[in-house]
């Protein structure tokens, strides 16, 4: 069984909130290994890079419209992204 099939099998019954949490955890762990490559000046952003990456990647799975996806997240999952 390949990784994609195994992942789909494990995640097929997961709810969206748990999927967002799971995705954030995995992406944040991956981002830790490359974040030293990102240099920024100025004020710190309200959102972490991992939060932005998570929202955009998960949004690609569920919605064709970025605006609709972000509106959906604001309406239903704002508690997961308190700095939204």
Blueprint (SSEs and pairs):
Layout: H1 3-11, H2 16-32, H3 49-62, H4 66-76
Helix pairs in contact: 2-3
Structure description:
With 84 residues, the protein is an all-alpha fold. Helices cover 61% and strands 0% of the residues. Helix 2 (16-32) packs across helix 3. The model has no long low-confidence stretch (mean pLDDT 86).
How much β-strand is present in the residues? under 5%
* Residue share in helix: 55-70%
Radius of gyration: 14 Å
What does the main sheet amount to? Answer: none
Secondary structure tally: strands: 0
What is the tally of helical segments? 4
Enumerate the spans where pLDDT stays under 50 for 5 or more consecutive residues.
Answer: none
Overall pLDDT score: 86
Order of helices and strands: HHHH
Our measurement of the CA-to-CA distance between the termini, rounded to an integer number of angstroms, reads: 38 Å
Class from helix and strand fractions: mainly alpha
Overall morphology: globular
Essential attributes:
84 residues; mainly alpha; 61% helix
Briefly, what is this?
This protein is an all-alpha fold and 84 residues long. It has 4 helices and no strands.
């Amino acid at each position: 069984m390949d990784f994609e099939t195994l992942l789909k099998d494990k995640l097929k019954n997961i709810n969206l909130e748990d999927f967002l949490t799971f995705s954030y955890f995995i992406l944040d762990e991956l981002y830790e290994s490359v974040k030293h490559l990102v240099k920024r000046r100025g004020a710190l952003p309200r959102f972490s890079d991992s939060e932005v990456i998570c929202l955009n990647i998960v949004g690609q799975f569920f919605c064709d419209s970025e605006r609709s996806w972000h509106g959906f997240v604001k309406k239903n999952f704002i508690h997961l992204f308190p700095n939204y």
